[in-house]
Every structure is written in structure tokens, then in C-alpha cells.
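Researcher: I'm comparing several assemblies side by side, and this is the next one on my list. It has 1116 residues spread over three chains. Same procedure as the others: predict the full complex and return the structure.
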Amino acid sequence: MTDTLRRLMHTPQGVLGCALLVGLVLACLFGGAAAPYQPEAMDFAGRFAAPGIKHWLGADQLGRDVLSRLLVGARSTIPLAVAATFSGAAAGACVGTLSAYLGGWWDEAITRTIDAVMAVPHLLLALILVSTLGKGSLNAAFAIAISVVPSMARVTRSVALAVRQQEYIKAAIARGESGSWIVLREMLPNVAAPVIIEATIRVAFAVMLFATLSFLGLGAQPPASEWGLMVSEARRFMHQAPWVIVAPSLAIAATAICFNLLGDGLRDALNPRDER
Amino acid sequence: MSIAWLLRRLLTVLYTLLVVSIVVFGLTQLLPADAAVTLLGENATPEALAAVRLRLGLNDPAWLQYWHWLSGLLRGDFGTSMRTDQPVGPTMFIALSRSLLLGGLSIAVMLVAAIPLGMLAALRRGKAADVVSSLISYLGVSLPEFVTATLLLIVVADQFQLLPATGYVAPSENLVDSIRHLILPVATVSLILVAHVSRMVRSETIDVLNSDYIRAARLKGLPPRIVLMRHVLRNALLPTITIVALDVGYLLGGIIVVEEIFAIPGIGRQLIVAITTRDLPSIQAGAMIMAGTYAIANTLADMAYAMIDKRIRYD
Amino acid sequence: MSPALEIRDYVLDYVTRGGTQRVLQSIDLAISAGEVVGLVGESGSGKTSLAWAIMRSLPANAREAPAGRIRLGDTDLRAASAKALETIRGRRMSMVFQDPSTALNPTLTIGRQVTEVLVRHRGLSEREAWREAIRALEHVDLRHPEALMRRYPHQASGGEKQRIGIATAFACRPELIVFDEPTTALDVMTGARILELFGRLRQETGVAALYISHDLALVSRVADRVAILQQGAIVEAAPSATIFRHPRHDYTRRLVAAVPRPEQRLVSDQVADDGLLTATNIAVRYQRKRLFRTAPRPATANIAIDVRRGEILGVVGESGSGKSSIARALTGLADYTGSIALAGRRIGSAGDMDRAYRRAVQIVFQHPDSSLNPRQTVADILSRPLRLYGGDVSTIPSLLEEVRLPAAYARRYPHQLSGGEKQRVAIARAFAAKPDLIICDEITAPLDVSVQASVVELLLRLRAANGTAYMFITHDLNLVQQVAHRIAVMRNGEIVDLLGIDDLRSGNVHPYTRELIAASPAPVG
């Protein structure tokens, strides 16, 4: 673990990604405490205030401080997306590994079905689920988790298949090792690394998808200060106060960039051959 | 290309459409414990609930409901909208044509921009042009469509008043106006696509440039222009086709959002309206049509790839 | 008359993240017109880098010392501009690559890739170039050249592709051709025919050539003079007639000693006719019949093979002969029909292979890179068979010692070991079970010849200590004649010959076996 961290720090992507991640985690944990104002505190006199001393990032159409809403909104935007991705990835990884291990007819059937489910684009699938389950952050997160499963299953399967071709797996079979031993002790450590990398990059998509759902009114509901929701609410007033849109947009971008960088950095760090 | 190969492709597409229909129908009609309550809300009167149940056939067993819907689809009957009481099919397909226009233009722009950008970045690997374009495409894939769209709206339509903010004009009505209204939506959708595809093209081209056969071509004394045009281009573009096929999925997601923001009456917008008004038949039809389009586009790309890549044997 | 190629005092470094690495030191090499000079070196010796340096195709992190000189005839190659090089390459000097499958562009027809050199350098029109290309392909003994020109590389065999590469290299009558291990990626017989072709073309055209290879025996048959490259420096250069018989430098002597000579037996004992493993009617089938596809041919026909207690059974054949399939069937890695009997006990199918069988029959694989789990330490890898078969984990250090590896290696990961060391760990893993039979599936093929010699020596020493039998699968007929008591020759899934070593020498063999022996001649000297 520490070894991986050390190697991650050797890559520029890893350093930048970790720095951003630390910032985001701090915002999630201490955002509420650090915010100068209450996120719901309205101030009709100070509506549409431009960024300045009083409001560092300006104020929105109800006079609420954008910076405070941003900091508190981290908690609404990020943790659910991360949780959704990792639970979806875990489920997808199990399906993918199983399919690769079983091989033969089972593998073909599962793969064809996964491919077919993937014919429904992520946003569409999430929309359908939310339309059935109802609006709200939790439902949106659940929808995202479900939409992550097929693509992660496919990635895991192709990695698992490549690992299965390796001769050390054949050596284990020739030794008469049990199926569960081969999957858990021989395959999994080699499959885990690429899957973790892929999952990290998916978090970026999940954050964007979550923000999009909230933007469409189907994810987080007002008065939450989820970033996508902030953009959606501010759209009507973009003429008077464009900064209200820019700040959460940059925050979303920063989060997505953070996880993309981490994924890239992990790609180098988790590769056992790249010891210099 | 053998008949068996075509047959297998056909079966795959049909299987895909079948699974998609099950997913769509299952999630919208069968998943909720009581679809009627989901549609009308908790406070609806028992009479209203019963009426809806009757109208949508919710009292039938699950497989029968599915069968009614599926057989309707196969006949071309997509049901009747609960909101407008009009048949859903025609509305949806007209909307689809507008979305296809938007999507088609976006893909065209993407191809024209992404491929040269990606190849250039690969050729100038490590130099300033490459780093800058890498940064820009990194940003491109990290911005959701609604962010890009909104920012473009602010800058172009609002602050500088260069283009109309929202709305749609059919090309048949007024070509120039139509184009003016389409520029921002197409730009938004293609931005993410260009960012994504150019990165892929770049990495494919780098792989090709490092390959043995490119080195062999150079060592035959062929000038760089011929090496690039004759040898590199084909091999770098081949995998791009599959990536474009995958990106149709991004495209569809992006279209939903972009149509909503720019008020374009395409199928994405219809879907959002259907979801917000809880118009079940429209939701089902819209989802089915979008997913079906994606499945067919994917298969076409798959076939195009197989036809062009001589390495795949048609057995 | 100036030599065709002259290299003086050439020094090359590569700049990497870990520092600057000297790859070639003070290379002095000259090739006269019409002469073939062989360059022999093991992996990491820098021989390929020298080829790139001559063709001026070095990677971006290469740094050449300013003093060194490379001249092609009267032309200073180092001073040549990029434009000038475009006219030199393909016309005055060309190259034949090691792997014909990757040297041809998969998306262009074969014809296109041959004609483009002719159009470029000989100024022919497309039509003239097409006719000329067909003539060139005929000249390298390719049948139906017109049809071949229209095909894509994946539709031609390895041997055909290499002939095409040679035809392309010769097409513009260059002064110098660099051959980079042209037969390494090919089968023994195909490779032998390519060498014949090379000899004939050389006689006809009188071209000067640099023939690079790791195989000293092969090079000394092909070249007029041989230079030995060790870690970037030429340690000896001599006429090929003498270099084998009278090697002067230590390294050359080691290389010469490591080359397998069939007449030098390394195993001198006799083996009793005590059957250990008998397999009858074995047919290995890899794929089941799938929907819409025809059933594939079985990998082996019904064959019978047996191994006696303590003997070394050699199994030779080309790729596709089925020799690896036998290994997989005997270890339960492939489905088979037929029966196996181990010390009298009958094994009906892979399901019958219980712990006792698996302990008794072990296998070592060909690729050291993929036969060890990259995420397990050497200790983890070795402890597994010990735990399964009732050994003691504390014996790991002595296991490592037996394969001549330091005990400290137990904590290392596979990527920290060299190819030869990895193979030793794989051997130690097989011996940890104290088996009766070890199947060695082409374990020395990817190794350098000196490493191969040490691995073979290790195997023989372990056999002497433990009395283990080996099924030694290889394509190297010379090597197998050194160590085997009996030899099985396979072709297309059938065993064409199964003889004792003396019978093989007597010449009373299947015609295919005779061809095989002719294709791998004993080294001169």
C-alpha cells in the first residue's frame, strides 16, 4: 500500500491527482465548518453580488454565498458518486471474473447479455431508473451504480481472460489447485490492478453523470447545494450573474480531472514491471 | 463475407434489441411495486388509480404485459401518450429525425477535427503542440455537456450575442437560420467527442508509429509523406471506427442534455418531458428508440470494421 | 577499393531514466564488397542497436559519440541528411528483419509493399514495377507470385513472408544488406530453406552482407568472417572456418562450448525397460464444435507414447506438430481421449488425475516471463508445491541452492530476475514436489545459448541426484541428441519415429526424420 503510494508520487499525474484529492476530501469533511456563511442563508439585499470581499465567489439569485454553497456541496456531489462507482465496480468485477473463469457457453451467454445491456447508454439507463424509482440523490446514485456494472464487467472479463492465458495459471491447474484458490489467489491479485485503475477513472464519469442528473432535476433536490443543481438553478439568471455558473462548473471539472489523473498515475504505480 | 457471418451479426443485433426491450420494459413497468402509484403519485384517488391500471393493462401478469407491448412495437404501434392522447410513434420518430441531424452533424465535425488533431499530436509527441492539445482534451473529457453548453451560452449567446441562444429551425424552412441555431448545440456535443476521440487516435497513432512495419517502410527509403499517408493512416484509423461506435453512446447521452438546454425538440427532449410528466408509454417508446438506434449504429460500425480489417476472417 | 561498409571507433549510449547506458563501445568493423560478415551476440549484446545505427534508425534517446564513423562505400552515413538517407535506404543498403509477421504492413497488399521500393528507387511505372515484382518473387522460389501479390500478409506463411522480405531487400541491387536474425522466428526446416536461398542469392549477386544472429553455429556456416559481440564490444573477429575450431577469446570459447553438438553425449547411463508412464490412443482436441462453425481438427491423432523410469525421452517436431499438446494432455491442461497409465494405475481422463498423479508428473513451461505469478515472491511460488505435496517450507533455501540461486532470492519478485533465473525457479518449483517425471516443454527455446547450456547442466545434475525422468520437448535436434535416451519425432500430430539414440544415429529412420537431421547440421569444427 505504502509502496504504491510512493510510486504514485513519482509520476506528475499522481502528485497532482493526490493534491486535488486531498483538497476534495477536506472540502467534504470540513466544508461545512469552513464555509463563511450558512449555505441556505438568504440575503435579498445582496442578490447577484459580484465576487468581492464580502462574497469571494459572489452570491446567487437568492443572495446565498456561492463559496459556502460550493464547499458544502462537495459533500452532496462527491461521496455518493464514489460509493456508487465502487459498488458497481465490485459487482461488475465479480460478474466479469466469473464469466472469464467459467468459459465456454456460460461465458458467451453472459458476454452477449452484457453487450446487449450496454446498448443502453449510461445516461439513458440512469434516467429510466430514476423515472421509476423517483427523484433524489440516493436513487440517482443507485442508478449510476447499476449503469457502471456492465462496462466494469466487460473490462474485468477481458483482463481476467488475459490473465487466464498466462502460464502460471496453467501451472496452478497442473498442480491440481482448486478452482477457488486459482481465482482468489492466482488470478485476483493480477486482475485487481487494472480494475482499480478503470474504476478510478469511472468515478470521474460518475461525478459528471450525477451532476447531470441533478442538473436535469432528477438527482439531488433543492435546497441541497449539489454542484449540478447549482448550475441548473443559475441558468435562468446567467445574464445577471454568470459567476454563479462558473464556480460549480469548475468544481465539477476539477473533480473529474482529479480522478482521471489518479487513474493515470495508478496505471504506472501499480505496474509491477516498471521498477526503475 | 459469408452468409453465416451475416446471419450471426443479425442474430446478435436482434438479441441485443430483445434484451434492451426487456430492460426498458422491466425497469419502467415491472420494477415498481405499483406502477400506477408511481405515475399518479401517492395522493391519487383510488378511481384514478384503477383507471390507469386498466388503461395500461397493469393488472395482467408481467409476461402478458410485456408481450402486449412488444407485439405492439413490432406492429409499429408505440402506444398512446398519457399526456397528449396522441399516438406516441409518429411524435417520437419526427423527434428522432431532428436528433439524428444534430448527432450526424456532431459526428461529422468530430471526424473532421479529431483525427487530424490526434495524428498531429502523435507526430509531435512530447512537443508543445502535443502537450497543449493533451491538456485541452483532458479538460474536454472532464466537463459534462451541461457545463460546456451553459458556458458556451454565456459567452457566445449572452455576452457577445453572436448566435441565438435556444430554439430550433428545420433546414427545410430556412437553411441559414437553421445552421445558426445548430452551431452551439453541435459545438457542445462535438467538444466532448473530439476530446475523447483525439486522445484515442493519438495513442493508436503512437502505437503504429512505433511498430516494426513502419520502421521497415522508412528503411525502404520511402519519404515521410508516403509513409504517413500510405502506411500510418490506415492502421491508425482502423481502431478509430470502433471508438466512434462506442462514442455514439456518449453522443446519445450528450444529446439528451443538449436538447434540453438549447430547447431543441429532439427525442432527448421528448424523453425528458415524458419522464417529468410521468408519461409511461412515451418513456418506454423514447428509451426503446434511442437504445435501438445505438444498437444498430454499433452493429453497422462493427460490420464496417470487419469489412475493412483484412485480418478478421469471416467464418 | 573502399569497403562496402566501414565502421570505425563507433560508440553508442542510451539515455534512460536510470542514467546513461553504454550500448556499443569502440566498434571497428569492415565489410568488403561481396563479403558476408557474421555478427554473433547474445541478448543485450547490442547487435540490434548496431543494425539500427548502420541504417540510421536509432531511437530518440540514443547518443552517438562524435568521433565514430560509419561509411557506406564512399558515403559518410552519419553526415548524410535526412533527404540523402531517403535515397540511400532501400537502394544502396537495405534490411531483412527478424519477424516477418510484424515487418509487413497488415493493411496493404503484399504486391504494394514490394512495388513501392521499385517505383521509388528504380523509377519504374506502376505497371512495370508490378511485373518486375512478380519476377522478383519468382526468383526467391515463391509459387504463384501473381496471386500472392494480391493477398495480404496474414494470408501468407512465415516462410513466404520472409522470402518476400528478402526479395524486397534485393530488389534494387543494393551494395549492402543487413540481415537481423532472419531465421530466428521461423521453424527449423523453413529456416534451413531460407538459408539455402540466401546462399544462392549471394552467389548470384555478390552483395555484401552483415548477418546478425545469436547462433554461432548457424553464422559460421553462412558467413566468411565472424565477429563476436559481448556487451557492446567486439571481442574477437576471425574467418568462420577457424573461429569454431580455434576460438581465442574466453567468451568465444564459452559460446563454442555451449553449442550443442550431437556427437557429444552428456548422458552416459543406460536405462532399464521399466515403464513409468504409458499413454495410448491419445487424441487431443482443443475446441468443441461451436454454432455455425465446422469442427476443428484434433491437435494430435491417436498416438501412443511412453516414458521409462529415470530416462530422458526427447520429443522433437516443428510448431504445430502436437508436441506441446501431448504435454498438456499428460498434465490435465487439455481434453483428450484415450488412456494414461502411471506405474500401472490407470487414468481415464483429466478428472482422474488426483494429488498422487499430479505430484508424480510435473511440468516446466516455455516462457519464463509468464510461468511465474508476477505478484508472488519466489518464496510464495515455491512454498505452494511444498504445502500441497507434503514438503517442508523450511527447505526453500536448499531448493534454491540446488538450482544455484542465492537464498536471498526467496524474497524477490519475478520481474527482478533474469530469464535464466526465472527458469531455474520454475525448475525448482517442479522439483519441490519430488516428482517421478518432469515434462520440460521447450524450456530452453527463449534462452541464450550459454544460459541454455547451464540450464541443461542443471537438469542433468538434478536427475543424477533424484533419479527423475524427463520428457524433454524441443525443436533443437542437436540438443536432444546430446541428452536423450530415446527420441520421438512428431509431425502434424503423429509420431513418425520413436527410437533409441543409437538407432537414430544409424540412419535407419523415417524420411521426415532424415530431413529434420539435415536441416539442423552439426556445427563445423
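Model: For your comparison table: The first helix of chain C runs from residue 47 to 55.
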